[in-house]
Specification:
253 residues, mainly alpha
Length: 253
């Protein structure tokens, strides 16, 4: 993976600026739990105001479930509108950048992905050691939101390179990176699940005597983890090859 600096490119915008611009959004797949975590107080109040309007036109108070549904839907729509506005904003800013600056943003986005994966894996390790599974959903929400923002940033860069600079060669590489990153994230989620199952099996075995332990299940889960890790390693190699192609293009610019 690239170890490019995340400092702001001259006359351009850094990946951190892009993350800030695109920070209010739902995650891939529209998970409402993550969406709720990203809703500002102002947007939350929008749902409550809509609920109050509904009460004004009805003599019968809506059920708690109905109120929650209205608020969640209003929050989701408000976030999607804000996401579109911010995406348009970053696309306008990207239009001012040259090819080299856009390539630097790609390298920075990939480095941010590497950092986020480290946070994800270290978080799982901490959870397995502590046994506090309640914090895992929050960890997943945090990293998924970050990956989603990075993916949006990459897609915006790809769009700019295609529409403004007509660099189909670069956009094809970005598309391959995006595809590989999607596969890597799915496999990472799968290996986390296997590690959680493996940990549970090992804990259960510790509570039994030798004759009652289920060593076969533990062995199968260990094999599953190893297989998934091998697939992840292969995808990482593919991503690195794509990044190296972009480095060569950057050298020629």
């Amino acid at each position: 993976m690239s170890h490019q600096s995340t400092t702001k490119p001259q006359n351009g915008i850094s990946i951190k600026d892009a993350l800030s611009i695109l920070s209010t959004r739902s995650n891939m797949g529209g998970n409402r739990n993550v969406t709720a975590d990203l809703v500002s107080d102002e947007l939350k109040e929008m749902g409550q105001l809509l609920d109050m309007e509904q009460q004004d036109v009805s003599s019968t108070s809506p059920s708690p479930h109905a109120r929650i549904s209205v608020e969640v839907e209003a929050n989701h729509e408000a976030i999607m509108a804000e996401r579109e506005r911010r995406t348009e904003q970053i696309q306008q800013q990207l239009q001012t950048l040259d090819i080299m600056e856009l390539l630097k943003m790609i390298f920075q986005a990939q480095q941010e992905r590497v950092v986020t994966y480290k946070v994800y894996d270290r978080g799982l390790t901490t959870i397995l050691i502590s046994g506090n599974m309640t914090s895992y959903p929050k960890l997943c929400a945090k990293v998924t939101a970050t990956f989603s923002v990075l993916s949006d940033t990459m897609n915006s860069i790809k769009s700019t390179l295609n529409t403004k600079h007509k660099r189909v060669d670069i956009t094809k590489i970005i598309a391959q990176i995006q595809k590989s990153e999607g596969e890597k994230l799915n496999l990472t989620a799968a290996i986390h699940l296997e590690k959680l199952r493996l940990n549970n099996a090992q804990v259960e075995n510790e509570a039994w005597n030798d004759s009652e332990r289920d060593e076969r299940t533990v062995s199968l889960l260990e094999e599953g983890v190893a297989t998934l890790q091998a697939k992840i390693n292969m995808i990482i190699e593919e991503i690195n090859e794509s990044i190296e192609e972009l480095r060569c293009i950057a050298t020629d610019e």
